[in-house]
Every structure is written in structure tokens, then in C-alpha cells.
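Z., the sequence and structure:
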Amino acid sequence: MSRQTGPKAGKPEPLATAMEDTDTIDFEIIEQFFFAYRDFVSDPDAILEKSGFGRAHHRVVHFVNRNPGMTVADLLDTLRITKQSLARVLKQLIDSGYIRQVAGPEDRRQRKLYPTKSGRELALALAEPQSRRIERAFEGASAEVREGVKAFLRGMRDRQKAD
């Protein structure tokens, strides 16, 4: 005998009305984030796909280029991913010659990460279309607006782990 869920027996009724904004939910802003993210990552995704890489590779290449010499532990903390996930991605980037892993000078167990010349070129190739998209969005905006957007984005981050 099957248990019934919902107000009526059988299939749930389809809802034909769209969700509307409430006092606490702004669906238009949520949708704009979905669309902005989709478009923001589309150009790098196309570049990465040619090498068999994905968004995790992009994040690693980005942060290692922004912080050469960062440790694997620092990168794990920044990306908030598992060691297992990072190990696979990092191995591919090292094997492909985009990242170098060097033992720490004081502690040989510590692994420091550095971009190679081709890793730097990849990071720039991925960032350039994103930067063009950002500049188009800021066209005609003041420095104050730009700083306001940065503050807004920082505010969107988890406060417990914000860098």
C-alpha cells in the first residue's frame, strides 16, 4: 500500500502562477545572479574545455597566479574543497605544466604552489574575457559605484570564512 503525500491522492497539482517578490525575497536579483554567473563563466569554460579542464582548474590557476608560493593548505582553505578534489585537479595542472609544486624551504613536507609561464598565460586568457565583461558592466560608472559593487560582493561572502 503506497503512502499518499500532499493534499490530494495521486500526482501533485501543477502551479501555474509565478513566484512573486516578498518582503524578504527579491527574485529578480536572484535571477540576475544566475544569468550573470552563467555568462561570466561561459568564455573561460569554452577555453578550458579545449584542454579538458573545468571550473575547478580555473579556480586553482586563478588563485595560484594571484598568490604565488601559497601552500596546498592555503589553497584548500581558500577554495573550501576536499583534499581529494584538489589532488586530482592539481595533478592535472602540474602534469600539463601550468603549476609547479615546490617543497617548502624550512619544512620539506610543506608544498608551495607557483604558476609556470604557461600557467600565467592561461590565467590571463581566462581573465581577459571576464574583465571585458566587467568593464562593459561598469561603463560610465563612477569610482564610488565600483567600490560599492566590491563592497556588495564582499558582503555576499560567508562571514565566518571571509578573507
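The longest strand covers residues 99-103. Residues 136 and 153 are 18 Å apart (CA to CA).

Let me know what you think.
H.
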